[in-house]
Amino acid sequence: MSINVYAVATPFVIVLALTEFAWCVARRNGYYSFQDSIASMGTAVMNQCVNVAVALLVLPLFTQLGQFAPWRLDASSPLSLVALFLGVDFLFYWFHRFGHRTNIGWAAHSPHHSTEELNYAVALRASVTQRLFSFLFYWPLVLVGFPPEAVLAMVAFHLVLQFIPHTRVIPKLPRWVESWLNTPSHHRVHHARNDAYIDKNYAGFLIIWDRMFGTYEEETEPCSYGLTTPANTWDPTAINFQQWARLFADAVATKSHWDRLRLWVMPTGWRPADLPPRALGYWKQEGAEVKYHSRELPGVRGYLVFQLFASMPFMLLVSHHASPLSGWQKVVLSLLLWAMATAWSGMLESKAWSEPLELARVLAMGVAVTLWLVWASAPLAWSALAAAWLMVSLVWLRVARGTASRRPQSTPHPG
User: Fold this and answer.
1) Domain count for the chain
2) Does 37 fall in a domain?
3) What is the per-residue pLDDT across 199-229, written as a single tens digit (0 to 9) for each?
4) Can you give the chain as a three-state secondary structure string?
5) In a domain, 32, yes or no
6) Cβ distance 414 to 290 under 8 Å?
7) Which residue of 14, 34, 255, 294 pairs with 410 in a disulfide if CB–CB is 3.0 to 4.6 A?
8) Of 169, 184, 216, which closes a domain?
9) Domain boundary among 149, 169, 189
10) What is the model's pTM?
11) Other C-beta atoms lying within 10 Å of the C-beta of residue 99
12) How far is residue 180 CA from its own chain's centroid?
């Protein structure tokens, strides 16, 4: 059982997302926001780079822990696989609940909820810190005898399955299905910030866990998606660390040493007694939501779509288990991908630094990849393709810079 399910599932995820996008465009239902989708994809690229590093860190630890297992279960047995899947699904419920009910858990999980849309691009917006916490919940499976590689692979497979419910396109299913499966309807409730829906439906695959532990809520009213305190940015670094920054600020500001320690594990939203309550609420205008939108650089959309598809081979070079890159080469490429996602966000918000950063990123990535292909004696066609990407990117950036007459700062307004 390979530990890298993500690379195998990537084509399925892309096809499903493109199908939903085409359907939404044809129906003109407004379920996709260009800016929000690009921000989600940029965050996804960053997350995938971190996922590989975390898995490589966790596998040796799980292997050591597995030595204390009283027996070793056969991961190739159908019965064992079913038991492992149910175990992962059950533990995911508690991990997910922890991610919503504690300050430190919410800091790690909230980036996934930071978007004000719900679609298959949103499904890919994952936190770069959450994976570290998730494996703290799955170690019992190793201790009861499941092979560590099988546990990591099943966790990945389970995560891929959770991609499917992140949609508004699929309506409620027959009641007999809704009674046991975590359907899109159930997950819409989970992503909603309606008062009645907050902290509900934590299930990954089986909704029965929510029914058993009192966290189930049926979809009965239209959902409003996002955080009660919106992120109001497309910057993936800010999205990932806003809540962490708030917690650190509270830990520094409080005069109570005890509160400084327990702040992290207290219920979400809890603050030390000597600090004022933090105001919550999202933008409304005449009873309607006002979603975050920014004034982007002129002509940038085509460039960002081009770079999004061009970035996929680079991401696979980092995440695929058969990648020819060494460890340090993956780290360098991951940092360049992080810079890419940051530059995208700056372009969407007309930041003055975004074009210089993107220019530096394109040059560094283009030169590095071309030199690596030559060093690895790759077919000449691959080097030519990399050089062509570099030239197209540079020309496109030059044209975009020429058409940008001004760089206004981003302001939230109805999108």
Assistant:
1) 2
2) yes
3) 999 999 999 999 999 999 999 999 999 998 8
4) CCCCHHHHHHHHHHHHHHHHHHHHHHHCCCCCCHHHHHHHHHHHHHHHHHHHHHHHHHHHHHHHHHCCCCCCCCCCCHHHHHHHHHHHHHHHHHHHHHHHHEHHHHHHHHHHHCCCCCCCCHHHCCCCCHHHHHHHHHHHHHHCCCCHHHHHHHHHHHHHHCCCCCCCCCCCCCHHHHCCECCHHHHHHHHECCCCCCCCCCCCCECHHHHHHCCCCCCCCCCCECCCCCCCCCCHHHHHHHHHHHHHHHHHHCCCHHHHHHHHHCECCCCCCCCCCCCCCCCEECCEECCCCCCCCCCHHHHHHHHHHHHHHHHHHHHCCCCCCCHHHHHHHHHHHHHHHHHHHHHHCCCCCHHHHHHHHHHHHHHHHHHHHHHCCCCHHHHHHHHHHHHHHHHHHHHHHHHCCCCCCCCCCCC
5) yes
6) yes
7) 294
8) 169
9) 169
10) 0.89
11) 24
12) 26
Residue 343 lies in a domain: yes
pLDDT in tens, 260-317: 999 999 999 999 999 988 755 444 444 557 889 999 998 899 999 999 999 988 888 8
Would you say residue 152 lies in a domain?
yes
